């Protein structure tokens, strides 16, 4: 196993800069997510690490060894694609054995390693089947077994669960995490699914327009985003804009919004505050909303969406729509058209400098 270091990597395709001076470390044995919208550079970065493409500048090291000009077949990388890329005319066992066969390993070694890999992904009894006889989740496991059977230093996953339905995707998230922990391999996966990134990864790197916007543990990025983009891309967030007061902002109508302890920004500068929808309390009057919470805004419910265990309220306030997520506990629900008070604590408010 090995860590991966990406240092000041840039890659352009004509006038388009797919990667712009990206630096990120993937520590040995970690599970990392590269998250971003289409065209953000996440798949391009994965291809640079794999060796399918080479950077224009910068350095890529695997286990401390520079590999930015080393071809893919010499990097000892395992990779799983969204479409799995299984050979339809081969059995499950032969698909898994393919990489070892190309290496010229002895038949006994191949048989033992294929058996071990299939048992790891819980497909030990299905080695004789063909891919078309498997479910989507089983085919995904075969692709994973094929990627790890050669004992790569790094495992790369490109939207590995994108072809699965939601229920199966959740199951496979758990399985992928279990397998990764069991073999202890450095794993980097590309996704556009925020929930997937939060659920599976130890650390997340958010990319936008070829640049690394923010990197860190999921909880840190979710609780302390450094930009409006990070706040709204990883999870959901209400963004309030105004002038900095030093420890919060003042909205155009004069309302002061306080941020958490330690939040500081030059007074008078343009700034914004981000607050997660589930951290706002909503009520029909200021008293029942809870006086202990410091920030307060008034508005009117324009829409309510019921989603089983919770409801999302859309509240119109001074030309802006704010979103509030409330757990459905069986108490009386608020109706569209009602005037309401929103309250939340400064500790739930993130102060962000204008970008």
TrEMBL record:
All copies of domain ABC transporter, residue ranges: 4-234
A biological-process GO annotation: putrescine transport
Record carries keyword ATP-binding: yes
Keywords: ATP-binding, Cell membrane, Membrane, Nucleotide-binding, Translocase, Transport
Gene Ontology terms: cellular component: ATP-binding cassette (ABC) transporter complex
Reaction equations catalysed: ATP + H2O + polyamine-[polyamine-binding protein]Side 1 = ADP + phosphate + polyamineSide 2 + [polyamine-binding protein]Side 1
Assembly and oligomerization: The complex is composed of two ATP-binding proteins (PotA), two transmembrane proteins (PotB and PotC) and a solute-binding protein (PotD).
Biological role stated in the UniProt entry: Part of the ABC transporter complex PotABCD involved in spermidine/putrescine import. Responsible for energy coupling to the transport system.
Protein name: Spermidine/putrescine import ATP-binding protein PotA
Organism: Mesorhizobium metallidurans STM 2683
Name of the gene: ydcT
């Amino acid at each position: 196993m090995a860590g991966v270091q990406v240092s000041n990597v840039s890659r352009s395709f004509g006038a388009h800069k797919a990667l712009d001076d990206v630096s990120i470390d993937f520590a040995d044995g970690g599970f990392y997510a590269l998250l971003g919208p289409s065209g953000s550079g996440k798949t391009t970065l994965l291809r640079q690490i794999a060796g399918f493409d080479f950077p224009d500048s910068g350095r890529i090291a695997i286990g401390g060894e520079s590999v930015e000009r080393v071809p893919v077949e010499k990097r000892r990388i395992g990779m799983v694609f969204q479409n799995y890329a299984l050979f339809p005319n081969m059995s499950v066992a032969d698909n898994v054995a393919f990489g070892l066969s190309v290496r010229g390993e002895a038949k006994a070694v191949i048989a033992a390693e294929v058996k071990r890999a299939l048992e790891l992904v819980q497909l030990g009894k299905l080695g004789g089947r063909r891919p078309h006889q498997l479910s989507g989740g089983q085919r995904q496991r075969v692709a994973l077994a094929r990627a790890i059977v050669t004992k790569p230093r790094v495992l790369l996953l490109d939207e590995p669960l994108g072809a699965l339905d939601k229920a199966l995707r959740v199951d496979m998230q758990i399985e992928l995490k279990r397998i990764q922990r069991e073999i202890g391999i450095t794993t980097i996966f590309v996704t556009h699914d925020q929930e997937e990134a939060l659920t599976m990864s130890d650390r997340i790197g958010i990319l936008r327009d070829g640049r690394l916007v923010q990197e860190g543990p999921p909880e840190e990025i979710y609780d302390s985003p450094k930009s409006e983009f990070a706040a709204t891309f990883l999870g959901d967030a209400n963004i309030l804009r105004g002038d900095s007061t030093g420890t919060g902002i003042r909205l155009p109508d004069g309302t002061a919004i306080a941020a958490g302890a330690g939040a500081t920004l030059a007074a008078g500068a343009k700034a914004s505050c981000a607050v997660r929808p589930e951290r706002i309390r909503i009520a029909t009057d200021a008293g029942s909303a809870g006086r202990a919470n410091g920030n307060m805004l008034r508005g009117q419910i324009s829409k309510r969406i019921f989603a089983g265990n919770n409801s999302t309220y859309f509240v119109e306030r001074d030309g802006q729509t704010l979103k509030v997520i409330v757990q459905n506990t069986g108490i009386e629900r608020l109706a569209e058209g009602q005037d309401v008070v929103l309250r939340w604590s400064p500790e739930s408010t993130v102060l962000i400098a204008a970008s």
